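Lecture notes, unit on protein representations.

Consider one protein chain, 248 amino acids long.
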Amino acid sequence: MNRRQPPAFGVSFLLHAAALAIAVSLTPRLSLQLSSHAADSSVTKVSVQGQSRTPAADDLQKPSTKVTTELLFLLDKLAQGSYDALATLIGTSPARMEWTHTTSAEAYELLLTIRRYYRSELDLKDLMGSSQLRGFYDRIRMAILTSVIATTPNGYRASDARFLVGSIYWRQGSVDEAARWWRDMTVDPADSYVTAYSQVLDAVRRAGPNGERLDRGAINSALNDERRNWVDFWETRLKQFGYSFDVY
């Protein structure tokens, strides 16, 4: 008996499908809860099996565990990946999806359906502009990372979190705020971002207490190197499957 073969999907379609799964699970529920927490750090609503509760402010400051800290960092990576995939999805013209269109009309139509859905949803939430969408995800990440700093046991990976918070402020153009977060970092060789944040911390310390001699070139170089590591990791994995980022 002949079995119907599944459609061939371009790598970008797979990424967009992943964006669908991530955005469905992250954006409507957790993201809104976390962004609410970011707006008011004293209370947040936590949904458990469809029910909401408002914990006391002290609950948000209780020491956590290393496992929980690692899960929060994983959540931050999911937020970054969700933004990257969603921004690519809504920003890529169908005219550029020739590979998927040629390989599978079914996959191409599904991709267009997903794209239309998210463009409509983002428009309803006034998030279609690139700055609005980026700001929305920045607030989510801020809530996650500041939770790490407030609750991680014995400062475990706190400097990693401070580095990432400062990186968000730096990209937004808030140089003084970025330096404030970076200035409190302490070097731990076991941290994941120690190479990058050591360079940043060195530049901040050399700038003096008021940051008047801040070496922006050195900081941009460190941040760009870290971003390149992120991209190179996924590019290498894609190549193992015979794909690249520009295959649509």
